[in-house]
C-alpha cells in the first residue's frame, strides 16, 4: 500500500468543493480542503499536500496567483487548475504559472482523475524529500 | 476830314443804343456814334473819313445804286447787311437809311441807323427751332402739358400787392374765394394729347378755352396758391405732388409742375405739366406693404435672421478677382491673416428677435459690428462660405457652432445667402436654426442606444452565456464529480453504499441548485416589479430596428417593416418587448448568415390580431426550421446552433408569457422562418 497521498482542494463553491473531496477519497486518497487561497496559506504553512486541485476564479487570490506565490516560496507541488472561464490566454497563463493541467468546467471527471494520478506519480512523496 | 454840322445836340446820339453813322454819297464816313463804335469796333477817329463799305466790308445782295435809288425815291431804305467788325467777326446788321439833303434838295449824305441783327437772327433761329421742338415735344411728351393764359389771374393779384398785401400766401389762404376767382380767370390755351388722356378727355375742345377751376379739388387748393404765389414772386418753377380731378370728376394723383420762363412771363402764359403718378403711388404703396411684410417676416420668423453689411467684403473680393486670384481657398492658405481680416470687415447690420433670444442678448443693437466674435473656433465655416461665394454660388449652408453674446457655444444650422441682386447693395443674409436640442436628443439617443445595446447583449445569448456558464457550471461540475465518485465507490469490490447515498443526495441538491439558477435568470430576464405602461407597438418596433441598424448593415440584411394601422396599445414593459424583438432579429441574422447577400431579408409585420390584440411577425429568408424542431425551439437548453446554449428563445417565451401573450414559430412555405408574437391589448382604465 503506497503511503497515503494528500490532495489539497481549494474551491470557493461549497458543493463543488465537497464533491471534489468526495472524488479524491473515492480514489483512495486523503483530502483536505480550503475555501480560499488565503485560507490555504494561513493553515497549511509550508506543506500543502502532494497535489493541489484549485479553481482559478475565486474571490480574493486567484488560483494562478496562489500557484505563483507557492513557486516563489520554493514549493513545487503539482497544481491542477479548473476554471469556468474560457478566456483564450488563460490556458497559457495557467500553464506558465506552473499548473500541470487546466480543466474547464464542467470538466470530464475521468480527465481530472488521470491528471491527478499523473501529478501524484511525478510529485514528491509525503515523506522524505526535502524541498 | 470834313466836319459835319451835326455837332450841336449830338451828345444825345452817343446815348442811344442803336449805332448811327453818316456818310457822303461816295461812302465817306462823316459821323460815327458811340454805339457804332461798340458795334463795329472802330473808334470815331478810326472811322471818320473812311469808306464805309471798305471799313465794314459790307455785303448786300442789292447794289448800292438800287438801294440808294430806293432811298432817294422814298426817303427810306431798310435792309440787312452782312458786315465785318474790326476784330473780324461777321455780323448781321439790320440797317435803316435816311437821307440828308441840301437846300436844293439834293441828297448829300445818308444816315444809317443799325442794329446788330446777328444775335437777333440767332435768337430767332433758336426760337424758331425751339418752338418747333416744343411743339413736337408738347405733342409727343409723356408728360401732360397745357398752356394757360394767366393774365386774368395776374390782373387780379397785382392790385393786392399794390394795396399793401405783403404776405400773399397768407392772404390767399384766408381768402379762398380769391383763389377760385383766379382759377376761373386762368384760361387754357392749348393742351397736348397726353394731358387729355390723363384727364380722361377725348378732344382738345373739351379743355381748350375753359378755365382750370374744375380740375382743382378743394384739398389741392394750397398747391394752386403755391402756383399763384410763385408766379407773383417770379419763381422759375414749381414741382409738387398733388391730386387733381379729371373731366369725369375722378381724382388723379399727379406730379404737378409749373414753369414760368421769362419769355412766357412777359406774355402772361404759363406752362403746366402733369405726370400721372397714380401708378407710381400704387407701386410705392405696394413696396411699402412689401417692406412691412419683409419687416414683419424678418422680425417674427421662427428662425434667427441676420442682415449683414458685406459691402467692404465685396470690394476686397472684387480686387482679388482683378488681380487674377481664381482659387480663394488657396489664397487663404497663402495668406493666413486674410480670414481674420474678413471677419472684421463683415458686419452685422440688423438682427431679428429670434436671433436676440438665441444669442442671449436683450437688444438688436448689441449685435451690430464685426462678425468675428460670433465665430470663435468655427472660423472654418466662414472660410468655406467665402470660398463658395467667390466660386459663384449664391448660398452656403452647414452645421456649425457659434459663440453667443453670453459666452455659450451653441450648435446651429447656418445658412448664408448672397444672391447677386443683393451683392450690388452690399447686403448679405444669414439664417440660423438652433439644432442644439436636436443634437442633444441625438446624443441622448446614442446613449440610450448604447445602454440598450448593452442590455440587449446581456439578454442575447453571448453575454448571458458567460454569466450562466459560471452560475450553472458549478452545480454541473459538482454533479459530474459526485457522479464519478459514486461510480468509483460502486466499482469497488465492496461498494461504500453510505458514501454513494451521500453522493447521490448531494447530486440531487446540486441539480436543484442548477434549476434555481435557471429560475433566477428567468426572473431576471422577465423583470419582476418593472413598470408596465401602454406600449405603441409600431414605435417600439421602429426603435428596436434603429438599434439593430448597424447589425443589419454589417451582415448586409435588408429589412422591411410593414406597420399595421391603428394598433391598440399593449400593456407591458417596452424594453422587454424590444429585447424579444432584438433577440429574434439577431437569431434571424445568424440564420441567414449562409444566404447570399441578396437573399438576406428580414421582414417585420404588425397587425391587429383576431382576438383584438397585436400580432407581430418576424420573418427571415434563412433555411427555415426543421419540422422536428418547431415544437422544441422555445425549450430551455434547446439549440440548433453550434456552441449555443439555447437560452435566448426560452427567455423570450418567458417574457411574452409574462405579458399575457403567446409566442410561436413556423417554417414559411417559401423558405425561411417566421416567429409570431401575440400580445393582448391594454384595457382602458387599467391601472399601470
Encode the helix/strand succession of chain A as letters.
Answer: EHEHEHEHEH
CATH class bucket of the largest domain in chain B: Alpha Beta
Largest interface: A-B, 24 and 25 residues
Compute the CA-based radius of gyration of chain A: 13 Å
Q: What structural class results from the helix and strand content of chain A?
A: alpha/beta
Could you report the average pLDDT of chain B, rounded to the nearest whole number?
Answer: 83
Tell me the domain tally of chain B: 5
The beta-strand count of chain A equals: 5
- CATH homologous superfamily name of the largest domain in chain B? Histidine kinase-like ATPase, C-terminal domain
Rg over CA atoms of chain B: 56 Å
Q: Do you know the CATH topology of chain A?
A: Rossmann fold
CATH homologous superfamily title of chain A: Response regulator
Q: List low-confidence stretches of chain B.
A: none
CATH architect. name of the largest domain in chain B: 2-Layer Sandwich
Question: What can you see in these coordinates?
Answer:
The complex is a heterodimer of chains A (131) and B (688). With 131 residues, chain A is α/β, with parallel strands linked by helices. Chain A contains five helices and five strands; from the N terminus they run βαβαβαβαβα. Chain A has helices at 14-26, 37-44, 63-72, 88-97, 109-122, and strands spanning 6-10, 30-34, 51-55, 79-83, 99-104. In chain A, strand 4 (79-83), helix 4 and strand 5 (99-104) form a beta-alpha-beta unit. Chain A is globular. Chain B is an alpha+beta fold and 688 residues long. Chain B has five domains: 10-122, Beta-Lactamase (2-Layer Sandwich), CATH 3.30.450.20; 141-281, Beta-Lactamase (2-Layer Sandwich); 301-432, PAS domain (Beta-Lactamase), CATH 3.30.450.20; 442-526, Helix Hairpins; 533-679, Heat Shock Protein 90 (2-Layer Sandwich). At the A-B interface, helix 1 and helix 5 of A face helix 20 and helix 21 of B.
Amino acid at each position: 500500500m503506497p503511503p497515503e497521498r494528500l490532495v489539497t482542494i481549494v474551491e470557493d463553491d461549497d458543493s463543488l468543493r465537497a464533491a471534489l473531496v468526495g472524488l479524491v477519497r473515492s480514489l483512495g486518497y486523503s483530502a483536505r480542503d480550503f475555501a480560499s487561497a488565503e485560507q490555504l496559506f494561513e493553515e497549511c504553512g509550508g506543506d500543502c499536500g502532494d497535489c493541489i486541485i484549485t479553481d482559478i476564479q475565486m474571490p480574493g487570490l486567484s488560483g494562478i496567483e496562489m500557484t505563483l506565490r507557492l513557486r516563489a516560496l520554493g514549493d513545487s507541488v503539482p497544481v491542477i487548475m479548473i476554471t469556468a472561464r474560457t478566456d483564450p490566454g488563460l490556458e497559457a497563463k495557467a500553464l506558465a504559472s506552473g499548473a500541470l493541467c487546466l480543466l474547464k468546467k464542467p470538466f470530464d471527471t475521468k480527465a481530472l482523475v488521470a491528471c491527478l494520478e499523473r501529478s501524484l506519480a511525478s510529485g514528491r512523496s509525503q515523506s522524505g524529500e526535502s524541498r | 476830314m470834313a466836319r459835319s454840322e451835326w455837332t450841336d445836340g449830338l451828345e444825345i446820339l452817343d446815348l442811344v443804343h442803336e449805332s448811327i453813322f453818316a456818310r457822303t454819297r461816295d461812302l465817306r464816313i462823316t459821323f460815327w456814334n458811340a454805339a457804332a463804335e461798340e458795334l463795329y469796333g472802330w473808334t470815331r477817329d478810326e472811322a471818320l473819313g473812311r469808306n464805309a463799305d471798305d471799313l465794314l466790308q459790307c455785303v448786300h445782295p442789292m447794289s448800292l445804286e438800287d438801294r440808294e435809288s430806293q432811298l432817294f425815291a422814298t426817303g427810306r431804305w431798310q435792309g440787312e447787311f452782312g458786315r465785318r467788325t474790326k476784330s473780324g467777326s461777321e455780323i448781321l446788321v439790320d440797317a435803316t437809311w435816311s437821307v440828308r439833303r441840301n437846300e436844293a434838295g439834293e441828297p448829300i449824305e445818308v444816315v444809317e441807323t443799325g442794329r446788330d441783327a446777328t444775335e437777333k437772327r440767332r435768337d430767332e433761329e433758336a426760337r424758331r427751332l425751339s418752338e418747333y421742338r416744343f411743339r413736337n415735344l408738347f405733342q409727343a411728351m409723356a408728360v401732360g402739358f397745357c398752356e394757360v393764359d394767366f393774365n386774368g389771374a395776374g390782373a387780379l393779384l397785382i392790385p393786392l400787392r399794390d394795396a399793401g398785401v405783403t404776405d400773399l400766401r397768407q392772404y390767399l389762404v384766408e381768402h379762398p374765394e380769391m383763389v377760385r376767382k383766379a382759377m376761373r380767370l386762368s384760361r387754357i390755351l392749348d393742351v397736348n394729347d397726353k394731358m387729355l388722356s390723363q384727364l380722361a378727355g377725348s378732344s382738345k375742345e373739351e379743355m381748350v378755352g375753359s378755365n382750370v377751376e374744375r380740375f382743382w379739388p378743394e384739398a389741392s387748393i394750397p398747391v394752386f396758391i403755391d402756383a399763384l404765389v410763385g408766379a407773383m414772386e417770379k419763381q422759375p418753377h414749381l414741382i409738387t405732388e398733388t391730386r387733381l380731378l379729371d373731366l369725369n370728376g375722378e381724382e388723379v394723383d399727379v406730379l404737378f409742375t409749373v414753369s414760368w420762363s421769362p419769355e412766357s412771363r412777359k406774355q402772361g402764359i404759363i406752362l403746366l405739366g402733369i405726370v400721372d403718378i397714380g401708378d407710381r403711388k400704387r407701386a410705392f404703396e405696394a413696396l411699402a406693404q412689401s417692406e412691412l411684410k419683409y419687416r414683419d417676416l424678418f422680425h417674427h420668423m421662427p428662425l434667427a435672421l441676420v442682415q449683414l453689411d458685406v459691402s467692404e467684403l465685396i470690394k476686397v473680393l472684387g480686387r482679388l478677382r482683378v488681380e487674377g486670384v481664381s482659387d480663394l481657398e488657396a489664397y487663404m492658405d497663402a495668406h493666413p491673416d486674410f480670414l481674420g481680416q474678413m471677419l472684421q470687415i463683415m458686419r452685422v447690420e440688423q438682427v431679428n428677435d429670434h436671433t436676440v433670444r438665441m444669442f442671449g442678448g436683450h437688444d438688436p443693437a448689441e449685435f451690430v459690428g464685426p462678425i468675428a466674435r460670433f465665430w470663435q473656433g468655427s472660423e472654418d465655416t466662414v472660410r468655406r462660405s467665402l470660398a463658395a461665394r467667390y466660386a459663384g454660388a449664391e448660398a452656403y449652408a452647414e452645421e456649425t457652432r457659434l459663440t453667443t453674446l453670453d459666452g455659450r457655444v451653441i450648435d446651429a444650422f447656418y445658412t448664408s445667402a448672397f444672391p447677386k441682386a443683393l451683392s450690388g447693395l452690399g447686403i448679405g443674409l444669414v439664417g440660423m436654426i438652433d439644432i442644439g436640442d436636436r443634437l442633444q436628443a441625438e446624443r441622448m439617443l446614442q446613449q440610450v442606444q448604447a445602454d440598450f445595446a448593452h442590455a440587449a447583449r446581456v439578454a442575447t445569448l453571448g453575454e448571458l452565456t458567460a454569466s450562466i456558464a459560471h452560475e450553472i457550471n458549478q452545480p454541473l461540475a459538482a454533479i459530474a464529480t459526485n457522479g464519478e465518485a459514486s461510480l468509483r465507490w460502486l466499482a469497488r469490490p465492496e461498494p461504500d453504499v453510505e458514501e454513494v447515498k451521500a453522493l447521490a443526495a448531494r447530486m440531487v441538491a446540486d441539480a436543484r441548485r442548477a434549476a434555481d439558477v435557471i429560475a433566477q435568470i428567468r426572473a431576471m430576464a422577465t423583470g419582476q416589479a418593472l413598470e408596465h405602461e401602454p406600449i405603441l407597438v409600431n414605435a417600439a418596433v421602429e426603435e428596436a430596428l434603429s438599434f439593430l441598424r448597424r447589425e443589419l448593415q454589417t451582415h448586409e440584411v435588408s429589412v422591411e417593416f410593414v406597420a399595421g394601422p391603428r394598433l391598440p396599445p399593449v400593456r407591458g414593459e417596452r424594453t422587454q418587448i424590444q429585447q424579444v424583438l432584438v433577440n429574434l432579429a439577431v437569431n434571424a441574422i445568424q440564420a441567414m448568415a449562409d444566404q447570399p447577400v441578396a437573399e438576406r431579408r428580414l421582414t417585420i409585420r404588425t397587425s391587429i390580431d383576431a382576438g383584438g390584440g397585436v400580432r407581430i411577425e418576424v420573418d427571415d429568408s434563412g433555411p427555415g426550421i426543421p419540422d422536428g424542431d418547431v415544437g422544441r425551439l422555445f425549450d430551455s437548453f434547446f439549440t440548433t446552433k453550434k456552441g449555443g446554449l439555447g437560452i435566448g428563445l426560452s427567455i423570450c417565451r418567458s417574457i411574452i408569457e409574462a405579458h399575457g401573450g403567446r409566442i410561436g414559430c413556423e417554417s414559411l412555405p417559401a423558405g425561411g422562418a417566421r416567429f409570431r408574437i401575440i400580445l393582448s391589448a391594454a384595457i382602458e382604465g387599467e391601472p399601470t
